[in-house]
Each structure stands twice: as C-alpha cells, then as structure tokens.
Amino acid sequence: MDLFDSYIKLDDRSGVKYWRKEEFTRNNWIAHLLDIFNHQSMIATLAIENVSLSYLDTVKQVIPKCNSLEIRHTCSDDVAKMAFFKLSLIVVQSVKVRKNIFRKDNDISKFLTPNLKYVSFDDPEYPFKLISDDLLTLNSDNLSIEPANITEKELNKFLKLWMKRNHTFYRPKVIELFLKNGTEIDEEEVFKGVKYEAKYDEQRLKRRDGKELDVYIAYNYIKFQFK
C-alpha cells in the first residue's frame, strides 16, 4: 500500500487497485485507514526512513499509537534522533534503531532513559560504544545492542556497581549485548573480584537486598537477566 495525496495504490495478489478522493492528503488517508481497521487506533509497525524533521510532528499527530517503531538506516542522524524522542512516546511495545547515530558524540546514555518495554540498536557496520554508566542509566525493560563495543573492564565495573546498589530500584529485566564478530568475551575478566554462584551455564549474583542477576556468556554474547 502506497499513500499519496488524493489517492492510494494497493497491490495485492489480485492486482493493483486505486482508491481516489481528490480532497484527501496522505494525513487524511492514514486517519481514514485507522478508522476502517479500528484496532484501538493502533498500527502494528511504524517505519521511519529519511523524511524531513518537520514531518515527524505530522506523523505524531496523525498516528496516535503504534505497537512497534522502526527507525531505518536510511534516516539521517538528525531525523533518527528526533524520531526516537518524538515517536517513542506513541510506542506500546518496541523501538528498533537500525543505525549507529552516536558515532560522532558517543552519547548513547540519553537514549537509554525513556521508559520503554523493549529497545534495540543494531548497525552491522558501526559498533555502539558503551561504558558501565550507560547500562546503569537504562530505564527500559529490555535492551539489545548489536554490535556493542564494550570492554570486560567496563562489564566488570557494571557488575560491581550493581552489587553495591542495595535497595535501589533498577528497571531493566534483560540486557543483551552482542560484541562484534571475532571478539570473544573473557569471563575471568568480567567476574574478576565479583562473588557469584555457578548455576548450570550461568553465573548468579545475589545482593543483600535479595535481588538477583543471572549472567550468561557465550563467545561474543552476554546476557544479563535481573530478578
């Protein structure tokens, strides 16, 4: 389905069809379709490519809610950043950023603070640089980053800081980091000076306040699961 001012082009198995309404703009068509397929006025996936910055306000006004937001690699860095902050407010389930928009300033932390159920960053060409403080600022239930550029020293620091934060609320449930191909995580360095209990193929950390953290490492992949 392609939307234009005054008409829609629909391409299905029976062929191409056109819906025309001369006085309609693309915004009118979106509102009309949401009304026809009324599912709590929510679309499944909203994908943003390289639109203008000003058009993001229009998108937010016309689409009240979406289950998933995907910011694609074709976006400029400015559009991608603004789309994240403006449109994540209408997202119910997940936000996926398909490019590294932090190559210049390396400041990913402010993108980890929104309260979301699931957020992921992936860019096969440019790894996302991380430090322990970035992970501690996370305010989403689930985070996935691929590939992540983070050292064992920073991972170790994150574990030690988490252990010290007794009776401190920490929202995340799962953090998954995929380091770049060819990088193997050194488990000894990650757990250096950290008290843990070996549990099957995971290591379990326990804080004095009763909170638990299971850590699973497999080659270039590390998963933190908070309980």
The residue fraction in helices comes out at 10-25%
Q: Count the strands?
A: 14
Structurally, the number of domains stands at 3
Number of H- or I-type helical stretches? 6
The rounded distance between the terminal residues' Cα atoms is 43 Å
The shape is elongated
What is the overall pLDDT average? 89
Largest sheet: 11 strands, mixed
Oligomeric composition of the shown chains: single chain
Low-pLDDT stretches: none
Pfam families: FBA_2
Protein name: Sdz-33 F-box domain-containing protein
Domain Sdz-33 F-box: 108-165
What does this protein structure show overall?
The protein has 227 residues and is an alpha/beta fold. It folds into three domains: 1-39, no CATH class; 41-99; 123-226, no CATH class. The chain contains six helices and 14 strands. The chain has helices at residues 26-36, 53-62, 77-87, 132-136, 152-164, 187-190, and strands spanning 2-4, 7-12, 15-20, 42-48, 65-71, 91-97, 118-122, 128-129, 142-149, 174-179, 197-199, 202-206, 212-218, 221-226. Strands 4, 5, 6, 7, 8, 9, 10, 11, 12, 13 and 14 form an eleven-stranded mixed beta sheet that branches. Helix 5 links the parallel strand 9 and strand 10. Helix 2 (53-62) runs parallel beside helix 3 (77-87). The radius of gyration is 21 Å and the shape is elongated. The termini are far apart. The relative contact order is 0.08. The model has no long low-confidence stretch (mean pLDDT 89).
